[in-house]
Design a protein that fits this description.
This is Transferase. This protein is mainly β. It is built from two helices and 22 strands.
Length: 286
């Protein structure tokens, strides 16, 4: 019982499609408007966390009845949903929006998703349950996008395979491109490594000792990007978003490797950030 009036919140089932759209079915708590049994009114309200008052911080989707008496709202991939975390509500008339609880999710179309050729931004929306038992969405909108795949760890290296999406000619974009490791805070030179390219697919190997050369205590985080040779084209952030897992940081974990830095031994390991971007962490050995 999480509502102020002591009633349990309505639950919403989510169905994802391969284009990046979502359909919401309110499984309970739906009610017709006062105009009559067949007169329905209401909206599914998405509020971007930390930006609800911003011009692009709210999205309202009309609710309509289905044949089985539930309410339904559609969020097609063509609706531009800025990146972030969106809390899902239902609202009727002038009443305040109320949070929805997660129901059953059918996210099979998101598993190993392979977007078709396009230069429009890639839309990814993954519903999930918050720690308080509410329904929220994690949204990404990227062009270009570099999807990270298999990560293999050597004694002092990491090798990453991936695929480039949302550029007109992936193999041309990747030709002479490099992977770029950028230390957060911008207090060290950018480290680069070459790519091996096969059409839209790429791979690269990063040296942990090379990253550790700048370590002087504490923890360093290096964010990974693909940078094309043509400086007029935007770089692509390495991330893993084309599946059904909203938060990968605690699920995809990799063992650290011990390497020698200028100030002693350090541990290096890849990890996914809270935004599912790929990074490398360098810190003192335990």
């Amino acid at each position: 019982m999480s509502e102020a009036d002591g009633t349990a919140p309505a639950r919403a089932d989510c169905v994802a499609d391969s284009a990046g759209g979502l359909t919401f079915h309110i499984a309970d708590g739906a009610r017709p408007a006062p105009g009559g049994h067949d007169d329905w009114s209401g909206a599914l309200v998405l509020l971007r966390r930390g930006a609800a008052d911003a011009p692009d911080g709210e999205v309202r989707l009309p609710l309509g009845p289905t044949a089985d008496g539930r309410l339904q709202a559609a969020l097609p991939s063509t609706v531009a949903l800025p990146e972030g975390r969106w809390d899902v509500h239902v609202a009727y008339g002038d009443a305040e929006p109320r949070r929805l609880a997660p129901g059953l999710n059918d996210l099979r179309s998101l598993v190993d998703r392979r977007p078709g050729p396009s230069t429009s931004p890639l839309s990814v929306r993954i519903p999930y349950a918050t720690k308080h038992g509410n329904l929220s969405l994690r949204s990404w909108r990227r062009a270009p996008h570099a999807e990270a795949g298999e990560i293999r760890l050597g004694d002092d290296t990491m090798t990453v395979r991936g695929r480039l999406h949302r550029v007109a000619y992936p193999s041309d974009w990747l030709a002479e491109a490099v992977v770029e490791a950028r230390r957060r805070g911008g207090t060290a030179p950018v480290r680069t490594a070459p790519l091996e390219v096969d059409g839209p697919d790429f791979s690269f190997t990063l040296s942990y000792p090379e990253l550790a050369r700048s370590w002087d205590g504490g923890a360093d985080v290096w964010d990974l990007w693909l940078r094309p040779a043509d400086g007029s084209m935007a770089p692509a952030r390495l991330a893993r978003i084309l599946d059904d897992i909203a938060d990968k940081k605690e699920i995809f974990t990799y063992p650290p490797r011990t390497v020698t830095g200028p100030h002693g031994e350090v541990q290096a390991r890849p990890y996914y950030t809270r935004g599912n971007d790929l990074a490398v962490r360098i810190e003192a050995s335990v």
